[in-house]
Predict the structure of V-type proton ATPase subunit a.
Amino acid sequence: MERMEKFLDNLPPMDLMRSEKMTLVQLIIPVETAHRAVSYLGELGLLQFRDLNAEKSPFQRTFVNQVKRCGEMSRKLRFFKDQISKAGLLSSVHPVVEPDVELEDLEIQLAEHEHELIEMNSNSEKLQQRYNELLEFKMVLQKAGGFLVSSNNHAVAEETELSENVYSNDDYVETSSLLEQEMRHADQSGLRFISGIICKSKALRFERMLFRATRGNMLFNQEPAGEEIMDPLSAEMVEKTVFVVFFSGEQARTKILKICEAFGANSYPVPEDISKQRQITREVLSRLSELETTLDAGVRHRNKALTSIGYHLTQWMSMVRREKAVYDTLNMLNFDVTKKCLVGEGWCPIFAKAQIQEALQQATFDSNSQVGVIFHVMDAFESPPTYFRTNHFTNAYQEIVDAYGVARYQEANPAVYTVITFPFLFAVMFGDWGHGICLLLGALVLIARESRLSTQKLGSFMEMLFGGRYVLLLMSLFSIYCGLIYNEFFSVPFHIFGGSAYKCRDATCSDAHSAGLIKFRDPYPFGVDPSWRGSRSELPFLNSLKMKLSILLGVAQMNLGIILSYFNARFFHDSLDIRYQFVPQMIFLNSLFGYLSLLIIIKWCTGSQADLYHVMIYMFLSPTDDLGENELFWGQRPLQIVLLLLALIAVPWMLFPKPFILKKLHSERFQGRTYGMLGSSEFDLDVEPDSSWQHQEEFNFSEVFVHQMIHSIEFVLGAVSNTASYLRLWALSLAHSELSTVFYEKVLLLAWGYDNIVIRLVGLAVFAFATAFILLMMETLSAFLHALRLHWVEFQNKFYHGDGYKFKPFSFALITEDDN
């Protein structure tokens, strides 16, 4: 035993097996160096600051004004980005790299750009509104003239007058003045009209309202404007309708003008005289031409200004994000008594201490400070954060584990084994080397475009798929491997590794009256013999094979979990967990399900016809009865009795000793006989030595006993339910195989049986659709989720606490655009 322990102690540590050793450090930074020092630490990204001002609100902190200024600059930059996007311009892909500007200079620069842009937008809106009104006036002149000419043929000229419109914009005094003479000479008692333009969608309701308001004493003519006009509010192109309303009386005129205002209809004065109409039309066209030129010049000038901003936008946004992050971090620090230094605390990996000290020295030198930054290690009174150094390949597997719970500081990390076991268990359920090749192609495409896709903003589904590209890679490779073992290529078997070891006794092996297959040569060298396909014993054989394989894999993985609990207990020097949890758990699990696994292997090796269901049931019901034809080896019955007794002993072994030993040790400590720290994983391993006495005074035996009883019952019941849970490997593998067979035989082969190219193409399309969306998407997701459950529940609950918290260092590399 001692040799084994020495051997284990001499093994080199694994990077991913235990989280990095962390230390709590204190920084005392002179005020003149603080900003630069925190910036350099952000570049390094290996120190997690603790918030020493947690009790203060954000508005009570030291650097709140600087944070507000950064927030205001972020708002301006988002405004520039929106304007560039609306203008249809693109921010520079390769932004101009200019030397870092001071925050104050950038603030002034951004304010100037914002003021300039707002002024340009305001002028542009006014010009666009004026242009729209002139355009509407032109349409009204063109369309309303036709109505007036037709009305002149049926009305006396002296009784007609120009419309007395209250024009909505004072800019048209010059235009409307051309009509004043005619309006003055008009007879107030005759027939009048109002002409204007309204949105096409409102025209019908507008006409009804006019009819009701005037009690039918009006004539409403309308005609589509023929051109779409930009709505200044929504910036969308809107269809409009030109209308002319003929009426009589001052009250009717007032009502109609109010209704026009309520419906957003613009009314324009149109002279009856054709020559005056032409004169006004020429003036309007002239002004439109001028405004078009002015608008184009304004758009070019605005686009030029936005393009200039776009060249620097990425750099400015990055700079402001960094500055805001620096000041947010400085707000987590406290001033010392002299108000000349900032005091900060934080966690860092032990390997990073030298790099952090070097960065702080560089900050002192660059700040020309006379006083250096003081960096020293503190005693930790709380559990450190968990930090694993991962790469592109291992990161996805670590995320799978962390989704269940972040590892407790320095406990064994399941991700080390998940890298292999997760894609392998997925493949056991998904095994088909045709489908595996499809997944492999998808994974290779994502990996080949890794550098390009990593810089793009992807959708939520695509981002998830890209993040798991290496998981997909191993899942596809293991699916090809398991597919070769199952000998399935889109459910079709192939003689890849030589000829079959069997031949049919008669015409067809699938005939219900056939005696089956006859073995005439050595076994098929790798995987399932292709002759099983289509035989009448295919399903019983494959069911038996996959079910037994599922149990073997499940028991092996659960044993691995219990073995890892031993390494955890040994690492934390917890001898109680080794003696009274690890040992009885190993005995209980392997006395029952380890023995079942042994029987499966012996049955495979000997070719015995023993019924394992019968053996396991009567091991409990009648352990002393003779096994008869179900006996697989000599001495099986006494071995079963011994294993059953061991399993029964293991339950109280797990339940009773540990709580009573803890109580005894506590009473000895309390009486002053011994002052050693208890190394129990059940009691706050991360509590400081100074507080151990106070903690142990609160020892509650009943609470400890109930906790141990729950833990023991959970393990005993879980050993049965978890083993049964691994049968999902068999169930999903069978479902995948049968679905593939149905799509192949009932869709593809059925369509191929017709001598019609159209039916064949339709069958091929349906088969491809079913394969892609059902087998490659839904079945992949189903197998992925089941593999996830097996790891989170059946494997990790044997040893993994998962109650730690992640190491989140202050790092510029981790700042995203969302932090703006």
Notes: The two ends are 58 Å apart (CA to CA). The longest strand covers residues 219-230. Residues 20-104+305-378 form one domain.
